[in-house]
């Protein structure tokens, strides 16, 4: 259980419209990621679903029941905050038990559920510590534990990994994905990091200025971006955009080609010089200045030892070119 | 990086300030201790003689002493209770967004800037006076007999006056503490199903404990020596109904001209204040640890 429907939901703060009318359907058990640049309204959207903000108009339904005017506690959703929002003066055990205590469950059942949640999250040995004595990753797990015990219809995550360091972020990412596999509960996850979106989501919702730019599975968005914004946002490094004569030749205003879809070959159509080579070991990213086309980012195998100033010849892989019209929309 | 040499230099540099502060404290204290062992009455100058602990004996066995001790504790305790509860309530109100917040917040501090003597006189003459006071007018409007606050409930009236001037202090400290409460925590608790009351009990109150501790410590120090409010309103009376220890010391030394007895009382007050301080630190000092 955990199907959420938004129908023509809007939100304005005073005169500023943060979310113009928006429709979205989240299926039960889905892992949905809201992704977009900062200030695109993704957190606001999540808070509208949570009930922490009131909608200006439109309807929100959870499991088919009207929930627009329900207070947050009555919606059966659990939220993990960016700052974790743990209660600093309570032990981990009390933190996790807090929603159960508020629900008026007996102490025995509380203890039972806390133990179970702690086991799932590997927190058993930390139960009597205070949040201040835990590392960032452990705090994150406590926050998730506090969400799990309520057995909510859906989990809401508000940029939960942004305060962690890079390696911890990768492992927490996997933990959350595994948690989703085990619990099979609907999860809505807000992030500005397209890598998190690509790796975790069943369905990605790309937002810009409160508008949904595209909804789809990660590979769908990668293969068939609906417009320039999605094309540039999904994929790392960013897609190359070529305008001018080269694009006009292909019958479009902007021509897009991903760095991984450009090969360094003898006698390719684009001749250029390497401006910058970033050697990551597994891959090398080249910034190649091509006359008449501009700077292109190219991904080559990590073994290619190219340096600044080396001449290269590039060829885009056939069928991997994206064409966009003057309005930014993808051309069929 | 402090070498032995620079540490010695540092001690040398701070010593003038430390010595000055030490003398400032020790000279009056030593003189008070010295006077407290003398039979020293201002009406009989030049007749001072050593009397041992007689001054202490007379001060402690004076029936007014126990009254004053109880009054002092009641005064401190009563004002603390009013200012803490009232301060939390006012801080919660002022923390809500409303128009003219800035001006209201400044006005709330105002009573703290009014001198104790002035505020006590305003209360005495404009509010509590049984003939011309505001409270008497209100009582008469509703057909009640005006109540002579300072005659019939002198200590309670003084507690009210002192609490009024200290309320802004606790309100301000508690308000800043409230504003530092993480809003995401509140929202998390809201999601967790905590009602307004539960959020207050489980989140706000624990968050405020440290500030409340600070308010209690600071106010206790100042409230133990309340004097001006008593002097200008009740003069410690009727009888000893509103006499606290500082006022008793004043009465002993300046109304009875007994410098020796007054000094003994002063020393006793210092000892009592230290006992209170030790208890306070024991009781709530652990709240100040992280």
UniProtKB/TrEMBL annotation, chain A:
Q: Which UniProt keywords apply?
A: ATP-binding, Nucleotide-binding, Transport
Instruction: Output one GO MF annotation.
Output: ATP binding
Domain ABC transporter intervals:
4-234
One GO term describing the cellular component: ATP-binding cassette (ABC) transporter complex, substrate-binding subunit-containing
Stretch forming the signal peptide? none
- Pfam families linked: ABC_tran (PF00005), TOBE_2 (PF08402)
Which family is this sequence assigned to? Belongs to the ABC transporter superfamily.
Q: What is this protein called?
A: Sorbitol ABC transporter ATP-binding protein/mannitol ABC transporter ATP-binding protein
Supply the source organism for this entry: Gemmobacter aquatilis
UniProtKB/TrEMBL annotation, chain B:
> Main localization of the protein?
membrane
The UniProt record lists the keyword Transport:
yes
Q: Which GO terms describe its biological process?
A: transmembrane transport
Q: Which UniProt keywords apply?
A: Cell membrane, Membrane, Transmembrane, Transmembrane helix, Transport
User: What are the TM regions of this chain, as residue ranges?
Assistant: 12-37, 68-94, 106-123, 155-179, 200-228, 264-284
Annotated localization: Cell membrane
Cellular component GO terms held in the UniProt record: plasma membrane
Annotated ABC transmembrane type-1 domain residues = 69-280
Q: Which domain of life is it from?
A: Bacteria
* Family matches, as Pfam families: BPD_transp_1
Q: Give the record's membrane topology.
A: Multi-pass membrane protein
Has UniProt tagged this entry with the keyword Cell membrane?
A: yes
Query: Which family does the record claim for this protein?
Result: Belongs to the binding-protein-dependent transport system permease family.
What name does this protein carry?
A: Sorbitol ABC transporter membrane protein /mannitol ABC transporter membrane protein
Task: Please report the organism this UniProt entry assigns to the protein.
Answer: Gemmobacter aquatilis
């Amino acid at each position: 259980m955990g199907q959420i429907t938004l129908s023509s939901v809007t939100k304005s703060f005073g005169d500023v419209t943060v979310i113009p009318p928006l429709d979205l359907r989240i299926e039960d058990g889905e892992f949905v990621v809201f992704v977009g640049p900062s200030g695109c309204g993704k957190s606001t959207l999540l808070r509208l679903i949570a009930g922490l903000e009131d909608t200006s108009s439109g309807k929100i339904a959870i499991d088919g029941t009207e929930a627009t005017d329900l207070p947050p506690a009555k919606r059966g959703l659990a939220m993990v905050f960016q700052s974790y929002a743990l209660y600093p003066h309570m032990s981990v055990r009390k933190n996790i038990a807090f929603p159960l205590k508020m629900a008026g469950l007996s102490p025995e059942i509380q203890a039972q559920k806390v133990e179970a949640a702690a086991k799932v999250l590997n927190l058993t040995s930390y139960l009597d510590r205070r949040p201040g004595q835990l590392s960032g990753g452990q705090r994150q797990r406590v926050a998730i534990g506090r969400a799990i015990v309520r057995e909510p219809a859906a989990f809401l995550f508000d940029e939960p990994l942004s305060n962690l360091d890079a390696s911890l972020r990768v492992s927490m990412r996997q933990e959350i994905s595994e948690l989703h596999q085990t619990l099979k509960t609907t999860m809505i996850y807000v992030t500005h990091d397209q890598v998190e979106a690509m790796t975790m989501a069943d369905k990605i919702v790309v937002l810009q200025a409160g508008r949904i730019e595209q909804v789809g599975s990660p590979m769908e968005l990668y293969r068939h971006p609906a417009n320039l914004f999605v094309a540039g946002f999904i994929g790392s490094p960013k897609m190359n955009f070529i305008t001018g004569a080269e694009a006009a030749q292909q019958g479009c205003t902007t021509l897009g080609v991903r760095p991984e879809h450009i090969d360094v070959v003898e006698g390719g159509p684009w001749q250029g010089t390497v401006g910058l080579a970033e050697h990551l070991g597994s891959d090398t990213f080249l910034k190649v200045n091509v006359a008449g086309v501009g700077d292109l980012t190219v991904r080559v195998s990590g073994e290619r030892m190219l340096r600044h100033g080396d001449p290269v010849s590039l060829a885009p892989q056939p069928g991997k070119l994206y064409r966009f019209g003057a309005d930014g929309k993808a051309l069929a | 990086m402090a070498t032995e040499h620079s540490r010695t230099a540092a001690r040398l540099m701070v010593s003038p300030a430390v010595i000055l502060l030490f003398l400032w404290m020790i000279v009056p204290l030593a003189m008070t201790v010295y006077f407290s062992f003398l039979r020293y009455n201002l009406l009989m100058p030049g007749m001072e003689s050593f009397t041992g602990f007689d001054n202490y004996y007379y001060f402690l066995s004076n029936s007014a002493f126990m009254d004053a001790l109880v009054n002092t504790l009641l005064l401190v305790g009563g004002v603390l209770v009013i200012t803490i509860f009232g301060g939390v309530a006012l801080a919660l109100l002022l923390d809500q967004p409303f128009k003219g917040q800035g001006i209201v917040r400044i006005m709330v501090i105002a009573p703290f800037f009014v001198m104790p003597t002035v505020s006590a006189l305003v209360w005495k003459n404009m509010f509590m006076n049984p003939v011309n006071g505001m409270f008497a007018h209100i009582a008469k409007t509703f057909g009640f007999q005006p109540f002579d606050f300072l005659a019939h409930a002198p200590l309670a009236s003084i507690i009210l006056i002192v609490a009024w001037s200290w309320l802004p202090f606790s309100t301000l400290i508690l308000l800043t503490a409230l504003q530092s409460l993480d809003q995401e925590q509140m929202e998390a608790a809201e999601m967790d199903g905590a009602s307004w009351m539960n959020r207050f009990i489980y989140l706000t109150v624990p968050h405020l404990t440290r500030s409340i501790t600070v308010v209690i410590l600071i106010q206790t120090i100042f409230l133990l020596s309340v004097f001006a409010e008593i002097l200008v309103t009740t003069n410690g009376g009727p009888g000893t109904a509103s006499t606290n220890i500082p006022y008793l010391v004043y009465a002993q030394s300046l109304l009875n001209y007994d410098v020796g007895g007054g000094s003994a009382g002063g020393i006793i007050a210092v000892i009592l204040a230290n006992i209170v301080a030790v208890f306070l630190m024991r009781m709530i000092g652990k709240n100040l640890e992280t």
